[in-house]
Amino acid sequence: MTKKVAVLAVNPVNGMGLFTYLESFFENKIPFRTFSVADTPHIKTNSGVSLTLDDTIDRLKGHESEYDALVFACGDAIPRFAEQVSASYNQDMLAVIRTFGAAGKLLVGHCAAALMFEKCDTIRGCKVAVHPLAKPAIRQGIPTDAAFEIDGRILTARDEKELPTLIPHLLDMLR
């Protein structure tokens, strides 16, 4: 049975990364729903393209059991995360990641996703591919320079350009 995926997109999101996931899921008939990590489903890509997602992160919180995997689509909002960590949408995002992690569900992401997974204590002892700028911040996981890493239920790619190497493995796990 095909698994259902919740896709988180920060604001602004890396459009190349987000669309790589979404096109792969669509083309392979993997059910998914998109959630903005914002107060509104209206976000932008890091190049300024406006998007309207299915819902907001607060609407996913409490419904994590309806999904088998969580994808974190990284973006330029990560540098602003520290400035806005107390925003309700960021707190909801952290709670959702923790819930998926505690349930042993697939956690997938690229770029600084491993940093968010670490903040939620979900990658302890796991190898993770992470953007070189975020690598020094990984303490619980084992950061690598690999294009992608699959360590059990944790799937990470160094950046959006490496997603095509990770996606086939992800699709196999979701089928």
Question: In words, what does this structure look like?
Answer:
The protein is of the alpha/beta class and 175 residues long. It has a single domain (5-174), classed as Class I glutamine amidotransferase (GATase) domain (Rossmann fold, 3-Layer(aba) Sandwich), CATH 3.40.50.880. The chain contains six helices and eleven strands. The strands form three sheets. Strands 5-2-1-6-7-11-10 form a seven-stranded mixed β-sheet, sandwiched between helices. A hairpin with a 5-residue loop joins strand 3 (42-44) and strand 4 (50-52). Helix 1 (15-27) packs parallel to helix 6. The longest helix has 15 residues, at 88-102. The mean pLDDT is 95.
Oligomer: single chain
The number of E-state strands comes to: 11
The biggest sheet amounts to: 7 strands, mixed
What share of the residues does DSSP label as strand, in percent? 15-25%
User: What is the top-level CATH class?
Assistant: Alpha Beta
Query: What sort of overall outline do the alpha carbons produce when their principal axes are compared?
Result: globular
Give helix % range: 25-40%
Content-based structural category: alpha/beta
Total count of helical runs of at least 4 residues? 6
CATH topology: Rossmann fold
Strand numbers in spatial order across the main sheet: 5-2-1-6-7-11-10
Give unreliable regions as ranges: none
CATH superfamily: Class I glutamine amidotransferase (GATase) domain
- Gap between N and C termini, in Å? 6 Å
